[in-house]
Amino acid sequence: MHCDRSAVVLLLVASLSHAQDAAPSEQEMILQLVQQVETLQKKVEALEAQPRTISPSNAGATSQVPSSPTPEAVDSSPRPSSLMAELHELRGIQWQGFGEVNYKALNQKIPELGTYGFVPGSAGNFYTGDFDLLLTARINDKASVLSEIAIGEGDAQTYSIELERMLFKYDYNDHLRMSFGRYQTGIGYYNTAYHGGTWFQTTADRPLVMEFAHAGGVLPTQAVGLSFTGSIPSGTLGLNYIAEYGSSDTIRPDLNSTTTTDENNGNHINIGLFAHPEAIPGLQIGGSIYHDRISDFAKGPTVRLGQTIVNGHIIYIRHGIEILNEGFLIRHAYEHTATAYNTPAFYSQISKRFHRTRPFFRYQYINADPGSLLADLDLRYGPSFGVRYDFNDSIAFKTQLDHTVRKGEPDLNGLHLQLTFKF
Amino acid sequence: MRTKLIAVWIALSLTGLAGLSSAVAQNSVAAQNGAVAVVVSEKNPVFNLSVAELRKLFTGERHAWPGGLPVKLIVRAPGAYERIVLLRLLAMSESEYKQYWTAQVFRGEAQAQPIALFSNGMQKEAVALYPGALALVNLQDVKPGMKVVKVGGHLPGEPGYPLN
Fold this sequence. Notes:
The structure holds two protein chains of two kinds.
Chain A: H1 2-22, H2 26-49, H3 59-64, H4 71-74, H5 80-88, E1 92-106, E2 124-127, E3 130-138, E4 143-153, E5 159-173, E6 176-184, H6 190-194, E7 222-232, E8 239-247, E9 251-253, E10 260-262, E11 267-275, E12 283-295, E13 304-318, E14 321-334, E15 340-352, E16 357-367, E17 379-390, E18 395-406, E19 409-422
Chain B: H1 2-33, E1 36-41, E2 48-49, H2 51-58, E3 72-76, H3 81-90, H4 94-107, E4 115-117, H5 120-129, E5 133-138, E6 146-151
Parallel strand pairs in B: 2-6, 3-4, 3-5
Antiparallel strand pairs in B: 1-5, 1-6
């Protein structure tokens, strides 16, 4: 606006000097000046009436516009229409996409599984991982819809579409927030913090214990049902809860053969409690208990067992520091007998961001009882370390080296390169 | 030995002076921009927030005001002084802030990222539009119709006010 007024003054001065040069009569000069002033006023009005050139499709896009206007320059009572244009896009369907391209090289050629997590199909291969499309839509202030559609790569570059999440969400208040549909179970921290989005992970892959069931993982990571979460009045302790009830039908491939295990889960219940103490911002301490009933078809179609998964976690994310620690105990107790198998597992991950670079270290451990349903995993442990480099806010490259010790088998060394992006 | 000690002392002094001048420069920038007020709608009954509460609100951990009114976060676009104060409050860089909100939406913890506006005039309109609005506004740009909330019992400009 200052510029516009300066331009008007300059033009007036120029006009005045031009008028003086022409030396018209005083009356004519006044008429000319009045006409010019009127013309310029119209131009200024037209400029002021122009809508702002704002191009947000959402707040993320908004924030990417490199604008740093001084308050004086833009504070002059913007038209309501400009604000409404700014806010309009918050309604309707919003899309976000996440993609990745991977290269993984291992010192073992015998495959365990098709793609990630364990040993892929060859000593060194490219794969795309999941191509994720996230759809969100706001119905009103309290109700919304969220859906995550993943196009995943299978064997021999075949692709399948999976509805990873489909949720109708209703936030009654801070203490009761409800979700109905297909969700990722709130067992511990990792599954609900990262879902299927490799982009958000510091590392190139998920910890072994958190791997998705369809990729050989041991936890029932997805379910259809009801999920409730919210805060518990607890002062500075910052307590929150999560309660889930649903069906988590887990089908996982056996690592030692081409068969799959359908655990034919019954309905599960999962209760979690976690705290965000105000005294230490960025800290989360919590745990969860999950229980359902599954089948052991290898021992007979009617053999059922109770599956209980206990989790404890300590997470700290602040000032560019990321510390993730989660421990699990998976207990399979056969019904009508005293037979029970325990599978302990944990992972610890630490990373620190230095500008665009984030070096990380992770150590993981899983020890499945040889008699249990998870016998194919057996004992595995070892470190991973690497670097994540963010080219900008949307593109990152990760390099990761893994060393995994396996009971009764040679140690496994791997190199994992990953280009990941969001749009 | 003595010469070395003097050299070290001079080096330390110069470093200290550089730090002091940097701090003075930062303080002068803060003084130029002044305190940043926490602003809500006049319809909102809240009159005081702690720093921890403010952090929970601006990170989307707290979704509603007492009484159930949904919180509507209004923030300034990158580059604005209020945005810098917000990032300082959350202990995040601009990049981390963007990633944080992308993740919040991805997790289903938020319906959308906070509305980022280009001016305090637009913030004023948004605060008037949404009864649950919460915004940070440079004190000198606070307009009639904006309700300034105390932070930790202090009003902007008072000693101990944390958002400078």
